[in-house]
Write a structure and sequence with these properties.
Elements lengths: L3 H8 L3 H9 L18 H15 L4 H8 L3 H33 L8 H12 L4 H17 L4 H11 L3 H12 L10 H17 L11 H14 L3 H10 L2 E2 L5 E2 L5
Antiparallel strand pairs: 1-2
Helix pairs in contact: 1-3, 3-4, 6-7, 7-11, 9-10, 10-12
Length: about 260
């Protein structure tokens, strides 16, 4: 006859685990002998080994007692159900691992490859992180709402980065990050932007975007407004020059 320590050793578990199985009603607790100790026989060792094997296999303790008492047919059916559950958990954990890997990859967590490439190209121009982060946040919002439009948007943005005048505007905005709203240099930035808009308009550029809802445009505008102290004044200067909006910019005055 075995003590609880010996029983635990034979079955490859801890004494604490044996007591836990007692408390759960999985393993009968024998009466104490005349010396006050609980003694266990071979049947208890076999039962405890079965409990340990089932628990190690991922069977919930709430089902172990049922499996120990099941017929062969019931046992195999229950094991099949448990196997299906475990395979589902494995798939879910694999998906979690993939998402964690994406987190490690940075922007690719929430953006398609073409948008990541665009942001990397902005970095190559030496633009400050704050400006690039604002662009990233804006495109995350667009990608979440209009994923099918992202290739078209990114192709357009890549084309803009081939234009020295557009790069000049980006550099103006980068320089303006720390400007106060009433900084007189904002006027020159507004003039540069209007020049770009006029040139694009003359070339037949269509500023309207049927896919962009007003709600999304307002949300994207807020990213710009929150990122630059001069943003509101710049938009006001654009309005005074015949253009309104930021994300979906529109002409408000007829061409001269």
């Amino acid at each position: 006859m075995l003590t609880i320590s010996q029983l635990a050793s034979y079955a490859g578990v801890t004494v604490r685990a044996v007591r836990h199985y007692h408390a759960k009603g999985l393993l009968p607790e024998p009466d104490r002998d005349h010396s006050g100790y609980r003694r266990y026989g071979a049947a208890a060792v076999v039962e405890l080994i079965k409990i340990r094997i089932l628990a190690d296999a991922g069977v919930p303790l709430s089902q172990v007692h049922e499996l120990l008492a099941a017929s062969d047919e019931e046992f195999h059916a229950s094991i099949a159900n448990i196997d299906r559950r475990l395979r589902g958990e494995i798939r879910e954990r694999q998906q979690h691992r993939e998402r964690i890997a994406q987190l490690a990859a940075g922007d690719s967590l929430a953006l398609p490859p073409e948008a990541v490439a665009y942001l990397e190209r902005l970095s190559e121009f030496g633009l400050p992180p704050l400006l690039i982060e604002a662009e990233r946040d804006a495109w995350i919002l667009v990608a979440a709402k209009l994923p099918e439009q992202m290739p078209m948007y990114m192709k357009s943005k890549e084309h803009q980065l081939d234009d020295p005048a557009t790069i000049g505007l980006y550099r103006d905005l980068a320089s303006a990050i720390d400007w106060e709203a009433d900084d007189p240099r904002v006027t020159a930035v507004a003039d540069r932007l209007v020049g770009l808009l006029e040139a694009a308009d003359a070339a037949g550029w269509d500023p309207y975007d049927d896919e962009m809802t007003d709600a999304l445009a307002q949300l994207l505008d807020s990213v710009f407004l929150d990122s630059l102290p001069i943003a509101r004044r710049l938009i006001s200067l654009l309005e005074a020059r015949g253009w309104t909006g930021w994300t979906t910019i529109r002409r408000t005055q007829p061409r001269s």
